[in-house]
Design goal:
This protein is of the alpha/beta class and about 550 residues long. The chain is built from 13 helices and 24 strands. Helix 3 packs across helix 4 and helix 6 runs parallel beside helix 7.
């Protein structure tokens, strides 16, 4: 079998002229292109791949998994990221998936990371020269990083006078983070600190705003905006944001003749603030930052201070006295938390939860976990733990049904009129036992109703099952949400009980094997036009409705 390869391609801001030659070569050499749908649209005209797979926001893990799967089958795959693939891009996720599979560079599929122009660089070029000195990038998205950690990073960057580029500053749901970031930085920066807001750099809808730290929230900021915040020496000039190269001038700007010749500028007497290479000390007093406009008397040279012992020597001495290892209290260690996410319900046919069960559930969640109730009549639980098996055992002992969360199959059934119409309950429970939690390209909902009233709306699920006159009716392909939502199409009536589960199994297996990653069942049915021997019929609204994406 041909050995596959993954290119993880950063294509920069999106304009063709800013894509590197190597990125173009990788894209054009690939059999498959996988990426976020907005990014795919930006480069679609540049590729000749036989398959282009575009998926939605927050579906990065499945993109990485699909890329590895295709490469292991011998395909040449490009996983695309805007900007640089190694800066909040797909490079790390691809390696994480490979590491989980035991990949090695010597024996596994080939992987090449193709760099691109990152947002901090492309946005800075449109603003002038705001990133001329020490800088950092901080993502305000707390989907994968605890907000308390992000706060510390903003605080540290503000205190150290870094030029800061904020990525993912705000979305439809995350509106508070940018406010908190501004509050932190105003403790260390002047309200008049220059700020640049760049949306969709070098794309059709590019928008640039020059503002200040105190006024930046008065302007539109979203997920496509990069916020660049200057340091204490940054200034505005003629519609540009400029950060000087340093805090002290090593040469004189505007003069034809420099006071220091090139070979003199790096001498010790020309840089009294620099770290002494022999003693490891630097003179204080030069860290006070002088604004560009102000004039200040020369800083007097401070008296030399007595050399202090290093932290390592102090800790070693303490360890010797206490006869115990003393750790550095300033050493930053951000532990990787093990988050256990799962769903829990009182059972497929049971909608009642006892007080005792609620107490156990609250005890499992604790103060730091989260508990979310869903329309599928179950709770999604997220807790930090190193022992998920103990949690599952504890909940199952309380007669809870514990299931995986994420892109899995979910079974939702009616309450069977509180058990009065119980004939079909065994079939619902058998389907749940067989399929619940099955890993699929996208979350799949199987709805089950115990009578022909179909009051739990199974005809609005991916697969709908209705028990009627001791037989079953089957529906597939509903679009359950959106302004163009529609019911599933009926494909069979009067199915014998013994034939139901084999038929449902075949439908699910076909979807599992042939659907694209993150392709919902109704989209798959529409694309392939036939599932088993059942033809697709368009059940959508025949009135043209304007698309209304949420824009998150």
């Amino acid at each position: 079998m041909k050995k596959g390869k993954i290119y993880v391609v950063g294509f920069g801001p999106g304009a063709t002229e800013h894509i590197t030659g190597r990125a173009l070569d990788a894209l054009q050499a690939s059999d498959y292109i996988i990426g976020y749908k907005t990014y795919v649209e930006l480069i679609k005209h540049l590729v000749t791949a036989k398959s282009i797979v575009s998926t939605g926001m927050t579906e990065e893990v499945s993109r990485a998994q699909d890329a590895v799967k295709k490469a292991e089958a011998g395909g040449i795959v490009s996983v695309i990221s805007s900007g640089d693939s190694g800066a909040y891009g797909m490079a790390g996720l691809v390696y994480e998936v490979l590491v989980e599979k035991g990949w090695t560079e010597a024996e596994g599929i080939d992987v090449e990371i193709v760099p691109g122009i990152s947002a901090i660089n492309s946005c800075a070029s449109l603003l002038g020269a705001p990133v001329m000195h020490d800088s950092c990038t901080i993502s305000l998205s707390d989907h994968l990083t605890p907000w308390t950690v992000i706060e510390k990073r903003i605080e540290a960057a503000g205190m150290a006078d870094f030029v800061i580029a904020l990525y993912n500053p705000k979305s439809g749901r995350r509106t508070r983070q940018i406010v908190e970031a501004q509050n932190i930085l105003l403790k260390y920066r002047s309200p008049d600190t220059p700020v640049g807001l760049v949306k969709s750099a070098y794309r059709e809808n590019q928008r640039i705003v020059l503002t200040t730290l105190s006024e930046m929230l008065e302007h539109d900021i979203g997920m496509l905006t990069t916020v660049i915040i200057g340091n204490s020496s940054t200034f505005f000039y003629d519609g540009k944001i400029i950060t000087p190269r340093g805090y002290q001038r090593k040469y004189t700007l505007g003069e034809g003749k420099q006071s220091l010749k090139p070979h003199q500028r790096l001498k010790k007497e020309a840089e009294p603030w620099a770290l002494d290479q022999e003693t490891g000390e630097a003179r204080s007093g030069y860290e006070e930052i002088i604004s560009k406009e102000s004039e200040q008397a020369p800083v007097q040279e401070p008296e030399p201070k007595e050399k202090v012992q290093s932290m390592d020597m102090a800790l070693k001495a303490l360890s010797m006295v206490s006869e115990e290892e003393v750790e550095n209290p300033f050493l930053v260690r951000q532990p990787i938390e093990n988050i256990f996410e799962f769903s829990v319900s009182p059972g497929v046919a049971n909608k009642m939860i006892t007080a005792e069960q609620m107490l156990i559930l609250a005890e499992v969640v604790g103060e730091k976990g989260t508990l979310e109730y869903t329309p599928d009549h179950r709770f999604i639980v997220k807790v930090t733990t190193d022992n998920p098996e103990a949690i599952v055992e504890k909940l199952e002992n309380e007669r809870f049904t514990v299931m995986p969360a994420g892109e899995v199959l979910k079974v939702k059934a009616c309450d069977f009129c509180y058990g009065e119409k119980a004939d079909s309950i065994p079939y619902a429970e058998e389907i749940a036992a067989k399929f619940e939690g099955m890993k699929l390209p996208k979350q799949l909902h199987v709805g089950f109703n115990g009578c022909g009233m179909a009051c739990y709306r199974p005809v609005f699920d991916d697969i709908g099952i209705v028990y009627r006159k001791k037989k079953f009716d089957l529906f597939i392909g509903a679009k359950p949400v959106g302004r163009t939502a529609h019911a599933a199409q009926p494909i069979a009536e009067g199915i014998e009980p013994d034939d139901l589960i084999p038929l449902v199994t075949k439908i699910i297996e076909e979807y599992e094997q042939n659907a694209h990653p993150n392709e919902r069942f109704f989209k798959y049915f529409k694309r392939v036009k036939k599932v088993l021997n059942y033809d697709y019929y368009d059940m959508s609204c025949k009135i043209e409705v304007e698309p209304a994406p949420c824009g998150d």
